[in-house]
Structure formats: C-alpha cells, structure tokens
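Try this one yourself first.
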C-alpha cells in the first residue's frame, strides 16, 4: 500500500469500500460544474480556510457559474461529512484532542495545539509498527484521501485559528505520500499556511527525500530518530525503512540546507533504553553543528506496557549535556498529555467500546504513540 493513492486495505472477503475523496476529484467536479481556475481557487480557499464564499471582490451568487451555485449546498454537506467530531477532549495546556469520524465511519485523531497549531492524521492505523505506539498495533487499515486530510484542517478552523499544521497524527505520511503531498500543496496555497509551518513527519523513507525537494510547497521536515544505534532503532521501529541513522541525518541535512528550515529530530525518551551515555555520544556525533533541532519527548507511561518514562530532571540533564556538546536541544512535553496519554488512544478506546458492544475481542491496548504526539 505504501505510496499508493489507494483507499482501503481489504481482505478478499471484505465488503467494497468507497474510495476516499481526493482534492483532484473535487477539482474535476468543480470543473464539470463550469468552474474556471478563479472559481476553483475561491471555492477551495473558502473551504480550507473556512471563509465565506463572498469576498470583497464580489458575492458568490454574482461570481460562480449557475450550475456550481446550484450544487453548492450539496457540496457543503458532502465536505462537512468528510471529517466530523465524534468526541472532543480538552487538555490543560490549551490543546484538545478530537476523535474525528470520516465519511465511512472510520475514526482518526486530530489535536488542536497551543499557539494556533494543529496535528492531523494521514492514515487509519499505520504499518510501521513502532513498539511504543498504539496506532501501529492494528496495522494499516486504510489511507486517508487528500481531501480528508484537508477536511481535518477545515474542521479545526471551525473551532479556532490554525496557522501551523503538523503531520504527526495517526499514520506514516511517507506511506500515503501522493495524498499527503496533494494536501500540503493545497494548504500551502489556497489554505493560506506558510510553507515552513507545514511539518511533514516521517520515520525516514527515500521517497520522501526524492519527492519533497521538488514540490511547489516544500514543508518543514521532522524525522523520528529515537536511537542512533541502527540495531536498536530497528527493534523500536520494526517496519521502518532500513536507513542507517547516520545516512538519515545526511539526507535530512541536505533537505534542511535546501529549504532553509532546520530539521526537527524527534526522540521519544524511554527510560533505560535510549536515554543513556551511549545515545548522548551518538547524538552529539551525528548532530553537533547540524542545521537541526533535537526534540526530546519523555514517553508517557501506560500501565499495560513495560516502557517507562524517565524523570523530568533526568531528561533535562540529557538536554543540558547535548547543549553543551553543540546540539540545539528542546525538552518537550506532549501536548494534551493529560488527555488519555497519546495519539491513538482515543481511537483505540472507541474501537474497544464498539467491540464490547458487538461482543468482539480487540487487541490489548499495549502501546502508546509518543513520537507522533504533536508538540507546539
Ligand atoms: S509512531 Fe508513527 S510511524 Fe510509528 S507506528 Fe505509530 S503512527 Fe506509525
């Protein structure tokens, strides 16, 4: 499924699933209703920014072709159905987790972040299978269409201002690359979001480094590193592409220099696993002097799991040591961590509740996604 625009991952016996909506399909429909490029742009701007179709330059009824005007109410309903809030869970830090229902009833999570940020999901489930992540446990269920990704932004903008979008929610954006890039292209143009405020987060994939530099909109890049030791990284991220950490940093550095935005390295701190002197040496060796920011994010402990969260003081000491060794390091708290821990948990709880009602068993809630939990 990686890199395809396909929708659902189906077993032979699974019922047919409606294809998720792509922005290009929407554009084609607008054109079929008589839209010219200016109509298309105004429509997409109004939808993605949640603005009125009327502008200073004219009212919609004087601007759009009649066929499109007549279709607007039905289009509105259809777009609103792409992403609806099933439940909202406010955090103490001005963040809020949204459990978002898609048109086919699947759910993903979006997180409203402090300081006008938003974290969106790109897949239902994930195939990377990071051992500390809830989202990865059930594997990949389906890709999100590009319009479903933008619909999460539209949904958030109905609630508050959004000036930054991070692709750190459920899913590995590199595994849904065409759709994520199409969404980024819209958000960076008609969507009105600054290119460096679109943050593509990945475990590292050669296709990302091949495609991103050539896009009209070049997002900032966040790389989930978690270890500088290749063997440990393979254990923590079992299905991530086998790119040596040093090679990954080289690729990231090239992209950072090309775009002029530093790479953000994400590091979920797991006590006794990747918070020791060996890793501090490894990080200093790979990142000192690089155009990069290291984000240390202490793991959020989950009862059912063996992973432990290091103390804040131990994490702060690690950050200080890295600073002293020339690595710009930030110690981050996961946004909204008081709300059900991390990304993937709301969905898992919803699924478990549905399964209980249906008398089914679900996989135990054993892991929690940390690296993908948005940080401001
Ligand atoms: S942490 Fe991210 S990449 Fe890893 S399994 Fe979870 S969603 Fe996928």
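Now uncover the answer:
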């Amino acid at each position: 499924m990686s890199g395809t625009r396909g929708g659902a991952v189906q077993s032979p016996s699974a019922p047919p699933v409606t294809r998720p909506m792509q922005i290009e399909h929407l554009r084609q429909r607008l054109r079929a209703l008589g839209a010219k490029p200016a109509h298309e742009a105004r429509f997409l701007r109004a939808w993605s920014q949640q603005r009125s179709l009327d502008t200073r330059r004219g009212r919609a009824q004087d601007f759009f072709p009649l066929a499109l005007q007549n279709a607007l109410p039905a289009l509105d309903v259809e777009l609103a159905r792409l992403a609806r809030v099933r439940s909202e869970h406010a955090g103490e830090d001005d963040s809020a987790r949204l459990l978002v229902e898609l048109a086919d009833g699947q759910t993903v999570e979006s997180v409203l972040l402090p300081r006008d940020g938003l974290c969106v999901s790109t897949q239902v489930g994930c195939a990377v299978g990071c051992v500390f992540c809830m989202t990865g446990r059930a594997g990949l269920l389906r890709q999100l269409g590009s319009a479903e990704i933008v619909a999460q932004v539209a949904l958030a903008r109905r609630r508050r201002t959004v000036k930054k979008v991070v692709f750190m929610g459920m899913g590995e954006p590199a595994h849904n690359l065409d759709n994520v890039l199409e969404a980024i292209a819209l958000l960076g143009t008609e969507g009105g979001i600054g290119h460096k405020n679109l943050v593509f987060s990945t475990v590292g994939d050669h296709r990302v480094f091949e495609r991103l530099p050539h896009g009209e909109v070049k997002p900032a890049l966040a790389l989930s590193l978690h270890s500088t030791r290749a063997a440990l990284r393979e254990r923590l991220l079992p299905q991530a592409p086998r790119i040596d950490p040093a090679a990954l940093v080289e690729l990231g550095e090239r992209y950072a220099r090309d775009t002029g935005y530093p790479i953000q390295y994400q590091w979920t701190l797991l006590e006794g696993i990747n918070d020791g002197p060996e890793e501090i040496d490894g990080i200093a060796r790979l990142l000192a002097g690089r155009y990069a920011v290291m984000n240390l994010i202490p793991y959020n402990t989950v009862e059912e799991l063996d992973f432990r969260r290091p103390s804040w003081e131990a994490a702060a000491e690690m950050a200080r040591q890295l600073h002293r060794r020339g690595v710009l390091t930030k110690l981050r708290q996961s946004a909204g961590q008081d709300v059900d821990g991390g990304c993937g948990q709301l969905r898992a709880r919803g699924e478990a509740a549905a399964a209980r009602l249906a008398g089914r068993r679900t996989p135990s809630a054993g892991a929690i996604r940390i690296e993908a939990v948005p940080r401001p």
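Discussion: The first helix runs from residue 23 to 32. The domain at 84-358 is CATH 3.20.20.70 (TIM Barrel).
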